[in-house]
Amino acid sequence: MTFELSEEILAVRDAARKFARNEVLPRIAEDERNHVFPEDVVRKMGAMGLFGCPIPETYGGSDLGFLAHAVVTEEISKVSGSLRAAFNMQTMGTAREILQFGTEDQKEAYVSRLVNAEILGCIGITEPNAGSDVGSLKTRAEKKGDRYLLSGSKTWITYAQVADLGLIYAYTDPTRRYKGMSAFLVDLHQDGVSRGPAVQKLGWNACPTGELFFDQVEVPAENLLGCEEGRGFEFCMAGLNNTRLTAAAGAVGVSQGLIDEAIKYAKEREQFGKPIGRFQMVQEELARMVVETEAARLMTYRCAMQKDEGLLHNALETSMAKYYASDVASRVADGALRILGAYGYSSEYPVERLLREAKLPQILEGSANILKMVIAMDALGYRKANR
Ligand SMILES: Cc1cc2nc3c(=O)[nH]c(=O)nc-3n(C[C@H](O)[C@H](O)[C@H](O)COP(=O)(O)OP(=O)(O)OC[C@H]3O[C@@H](n4cnc5c(N)ncnc54)[C@H](O)[C@@H]3O)c2cc1C
Prior knowledge:
Butyryl-Coa Dehydrogenase, subunit A, domain 1, Butyryl-CoA Dehydrogenase, subunit A, domain 2, Butyryl-CoA Dehydrogenase, subunit A, domain 3, 3 domains, 3-stranded mixed β-sheet
């Protein structure tokens, strides 16, 4: 066990940090205000190789691993949640899942194009009546000869308006509940696919989210993920176990971004004749923010390192990292707001935007309650998390 990052990871972290500072920070507040998706920035991130860390070189990645992925995600998330979303759309929820479960043809067709951001991906699990209860989804795929006819709708889909490819979960046999679900690689530019308008939301406004509708969409049988029916729920849970690592790293990043802003402000702002950073109660707040963020970072890195060592189904450690890092981000946001006072409430300062971003990880990719259930069921011995 080591607490030092390798030379390679430090190099990719520094490249991501520089990119975030030079290419994201100068424009992101305006893009958020105007609800503009910075597609050119996502394409550049792909061209730079930021999405390719946990992907082998043969499929367009850098093979630097999950820890590198977490570190890079954290750097981008420090300045923008909207752009951190891309690490799941291009890598963990799509490319990585195809790599783990796809056929050789599917890997060759999609993985490198996703990680290079030549095409944009999305993940279609959630439906109007299927949120935490993934098994209750209603989208159907019926086999007709050498293709499936896909019908149904998805909601809250990140990149719904811009994605080229969707990894869409649907029932091929609804009578078998979890065992009847399958996953499909769907070309979103074809007949029968339509997209709703972007949802108005609290944060991530530079990242479009919305509905996808499928009306008898023809999906070739070779686009059934892994070319196997009935494994969709298993793929979905394995995919979430990867996307939750990105969410944890994103939560650590937003916490760090808030801490950086709070420190800068505490040193500049003077009251009662001295910088507010000299007051013990401000120091206490800051100390808690720093320590909790560091603890969340260590849990996130451990989870990433386990995956690098081949323990991909580490649902317990992933749930713990994601649950804890998300809660910490929310608390750190409260602390940063207290330290900045009125200026924390102002849209002129990044804390207001980062605070809105810090609330999201508790909902996405498995709510806090769902993750606590996984952790407690394991602790009580009712259901092992790492199966
Ligand atoms: C900005 C944004 C982007 C998103 N992007 C995507 C995407 O790209 N693809 C996608 O498929 N989905 C996406 N989602 C959907 C997201 O994954 C869901 O919001 C999440 O799974 C929770 O579902 P829900 O919001 O319907 O909440 P619900 O499941 O309705 O839960 C509401 C509350 O009830 C609690 N609850 C539910 N069941 C239990 C239980 N058994 N025990 C205790 N408490 C429980 C939850 O913890 C929560 O607090 C996105 C959501 C947002 C906000």
